[in-house]
User: What shape does this take?
Amino acid sequence: MDALKIKGLEKKLEGKAILSGLNLSLSEGSVYGLLGLNGAGKTTLIKTLAGLYTADSGEIQLLGDKADAGSLALKQKLGYVAEIDLLPAWASISDLCHLERSLRPGSWAQDDLDDWMKKQKLDPERKAASLSKGQRKRLELELLLAAKPRLLLLDEPLSGLDPVSRLDFMERLIGYVADRSATVLMSSHILGDLERLCDRIGILQDGQIVLELGMEELKEKAVLVSWTGKGEAKAPSSTGKILASVQDSGGGQHWVVLKKTSATAKAPASYRMRQESLEEMGAHLLRGLESREARHV
Assistant: This one.
């Protein structure tokens, strides 16, 4: 069964089209990374799925049911973490636990929350305002996971966190997904953030998913091919599948390519091929897919 199925989703904000006929399907237990530049529509999509926005048109199915913003039973199966800090500064950790538990009757893993607070040496009466950014984001995650959601909607949850806090957050999330076979949709504008958790990624551009790839395929086969000769050059299709055409600020021509095999291949004459980090490769993809011409290479 699909945990998430979207067909022809349209959403405008202040008269501007943000989502334009978006289609997306996630099978149960899958972890999907949504990659896109700031303003691509990632937050709008996740807020619409979480019921914070109402779609203008299109179909959304969550966990096999038609999305209904007023359905408490459905909301109790979802978990949502925003990019911005949503914890009220005046509330204590204990207050937040009681609030979340009252909103999600039924299954509640208070023991997990207690264990985390004990390991962090956090007093339950400590105010949210006194916590570090990493602690607040981790508290958001613990409050979410205590309700044992089946579908997690995470909007750039690692934004602004230091390396230790990022690692701590991801390790906890990975453990939960493995234990519960939960489905995750997680957005970011940095491909490296999605590497450890996601099995597939989709690139959101102009309100649509313009490219989908398996994470392992991307890690093993994606390379940057650069033209080293003079004048204009054609895309080096003999090397593999062209994903995006990129022109750097100095006028250099490059292509993001999926090699035909995972084995090392030689670039044609006057071309240079190299492997880059996932973060750099993601930046090249986003830059290249900005042009309409690149999307139809």
In short: The first strand starts at residue 2 and ends at 13. Confidence is low (pLDDT under 50) at residues 292-297. Residues 163-180 form the longest helix (18 residues). The two ends are 33 Å apart (CA to CA).
